[in-house]
Amino acid sequence: MRNRSIVISMLLAIIASPALALETPRIIPRSDRVEHPIDQVFGTLKHYFNDSSLSGFRLTSADDKSWTLIATRSGIDGENWKRWAFCKTSAQQMIYQFEDGTVTVTVQLQKAGTQSAFVTVSADFQGDYGLGGQETTIDCVSSGSLEQDLIAVAGGPAKESH
Length: 162
What we know:
Blueprint: H1 2-16, H2 18-22, E1 30-34, H3 38-50, H4 52-55, E2 58-63, E3 68-73, H5 78-84, E4 85-86, E5 97-111, E6 117-131, E7 134-142, H6 145-153
Antiparallel strand pairs: 1-6, 2-3, 3-5, 4-7, 5-6, 6-7
């Protein structure tokens, strides 16, 4: 009897919240193969993230044991923001103005043979919006453009222009 009530409760929860089941993830990693050795790809990306005049990023972590790089960028201009991210706002927040954007990028490399690497990039965007004295930070969804740009920096295929 107790198991039946648990099953019924679970079914009701699933039926009552179909929107949650259909919600797409906010951060979707993008991946591609790069025809360069993994240590070369790691070095290229590490240099790119370390040179803020080149990339606008600040390297926060570089682990050559796990082949993982983490970098952040803030002060993203409106034009790049429009290309890189979309923020779902409430009806009340729709009149707010974009003030600043930040992104944390995680790059994970895997060996794909002696002369190639598999690059996976994920980007976590947050936008700061304000109106008068009110400010709010919104978790945003990536368009995938920044991730493809970074894969191209690593030596992967260049993104097609639209």
